[in-house]
UniProtKB/TrEMBL annotation:
The keyword Isomerase does not apply. Residues 228-329 form the HTH araC/xylS-type domain. It comes from the Bacteria. Pfam families: AraC_binding_2, HTH_18. It comes from Actinoplanes teichomyceticus. Keywords: Activator, DNA-binding, Transcription, Transcription regulation. This is AraC family transcriptional regulator. The keyword Transcription applies. GO terms for molecular function: DNA-binding transcription factor activity; sequence-specific DNA binding. InterPro entries: AraC-bd_2, AraC_XylS_family_regulators, Homeodomain-like_sf, HTH-like, HTH_AraC, HTH_AraC-typ_CS.
Length: 331
C-alpha cells in the first residue's frame, strides 16, 4: 500500500538547490537528501566532478545532474517512482538482470522496491525525476475514480522519440529550463501544484501500464447533481487553489467523468469555468475599488491569478477592457 498522502495544502513551497561543481561525496549528500539513499563509487570517483540542480514541487522532485567523470550510482531499492532521462551522452543501467543503454531519446524507470544501478558515461548529463509513491498512485486513482492495487507497473524503458511520451519529456525539460530563473512561475505554489499534477497525469497517460487502457477509454459524464456540487464549491471559494483532482473529489467522481460532465452540461472544462468565475469576481472588485488604495496586482492575486500579464489578457478577452481601465473608471 502507498504511504498516506499529506493533508491538502500541506505541500511545501517550491525550492531549488544549485551546486556548480562538487565532488562525488558532496553530490552523494545532495542525492541522499532529494532522491534515494544512494552510494556513489567507481574507479574514477575520486577525481569526478558533478554539477547538481534540484527543484522540489511538493511530491515531485526534478534534478539535473552533469557528470565530469565516470561514476556509479546505486541504491538497494527505490523508495519512490524514479525516472532518468539522459540529456547528453549515455547512461548504462541494470534493469531486471540485464544491461540497458539509454540516450537522449530514452527514459529509464524504477518503481518503489526496484534496485537502482546507473553508470553515467562521462561527459554526460541527465534529468532525474522522483515522484512520491502516494502521489502517483493517488493521481491515477483520481483519474480512474477507484483505488489502484499495488505498484504501478511502469515499463523499465520508455521511448521518448515520439508520441505522448515525447510530449511528456518536453514538459520535464521545461521544468529543467526554468531552474535557473529565480522569478519563474514554478516558484508560485499555485502554479507548482498544477504543474506537478500535469507531470503525474501526463506520465500515466504516456506510458503503458495495466490501467492504461481504462485510463484512455472515454468516461461517462458525471450526473448534473454532482456537477452542481462542484459549481457551488467554485462559487463559494473561487480563490481557493483548486485542482481538477480536488474538484473531482468534491463531486465524488473520477477526473475524467468530471471533465466529460462539464463538457456536456456547460461546454467547457472545470478549470476554464473556475477561471471565468475568478475573472468575474476580479471584475466586480475592480469596479467598486478605490484606485487610490487598490492595485490591479492586488486584485489579481486576491482572486488566484499568479501571472499579471495572463490575467490582463484573459480579462480583456472577457470584458473588452483592461483591468486598469476598469479600476480607473471606478474613481
Amino acid at each position: 500500500m502507498p504511504d498516506a498522502a499529506p493533508a491538502a495544502g500541506s505541500a511545501p513551497a517550491p525550492g531549488t538547490v544549485y551546486f556548480d561543481s562538487v565532488g562525488v561525496h558532496q553530490a552523494r549528500d545532495v542525492l541522499n537528501r532529494f532522491f534515494h539513499p544512494v552510494s556513489v563509487g567507481g574507479p574514477e570517483c575520486g577525481e569526478a566532478r558533478m554539477a547538481v540542480e534540484v527543484i522540489q514541487l511538493g511530491p515531485l522532485t526534478v534534478g539535473h545532474l552533469t557528470f565530469g567523470g565516470r561514476v556509479t550510482l546505486a541504491a538497494p531499492r527505490a523508495d519512490a517512482y524514479h525516472l532518468t532521462l539522459p540529456t547528453a551522452g549515455r547512461v548504462l543501467a541494470r534493469r531486471n538482470g540485464r544491461e540497458v543503454t539509454a540516450g537522449p531519446s530514452t527514459a529509464l524507470t524504477f518503481r518503489p522496491g526496484d534496485p537502482v544501478h546507473l553508470r553515467p558515461q562521462a561527459p554526460s548529463a541527465e534529468i532525474d525525476v522522483r515522484i512520491e509513491r502516494w502521489a502517483l498512485e493517488n493521481e491515477l486513482a483520481a483519474l480512474l475514480g477507484h483505488p489502484v492495487e499495488g505498484t504501478i507497473d511502469l515499463p523499465p524503458v520508455v521511448d521518448l522519440s515520439g508520441g505522448p511520451a515525447h510530449s511528456w519529456s518536453r514538459l520535464i525539460r521545461l521544468l529543467h529550463d526554468e531552474l535557473e530563473h529565480e522569478t519563474s512561475l514554478i516558484h508560485q505554489p499555485m502554479i507548482a501544484e498544477h504543474l506537478c499534477s500535469s507531470v503525474l497525469s501526463g506520465l500515466l497517460l504516456s506510458v503503458p501500464h495495466r490501467y492504461h487502457d481504462e485510463l484512455v477509454t472515454p468516461a461517462a459524464a458525471g450526473p448534473p447533481r454532482a456537477i452542481r456540487r462542484v459549481l457551488d464549491a467554485i462559487h463559494a471559494e473561487p480563490d481557493r487553489p483548486f485542482t481538477v483532482a480536488g474538484l473531482a473529489r468534491v463531486a465524488g467522481m473520477s477526473v475524467r467523468s468530471l471533465q466529460e460532465g462539464f463538457r456536456r452540461h456547460l461546454g467547457c472544462t472545470p478549470m476554464a469555468f473556475l477561471q471565468q468565475t475568478r475573472l468575474d469576481r476580479a471584475h466586480e472588485t475592480l469596479r467598486h475599488a478605490d484606485p487610490a488604495v487598490v492595485t490591479v496586482a492586488a486584485v489579481a492575486h486576491r482572486w488566484g491569478f499568479a501571472h499579471l500579464g495572463r490575467f490582463a489578457s484573459a480579462y480583456r478577452a472577457r470584458f473588452g477592457v483592461s483591468p486598469s481601465e476598469t479600476l480607473r473608471r471606478a474613481a
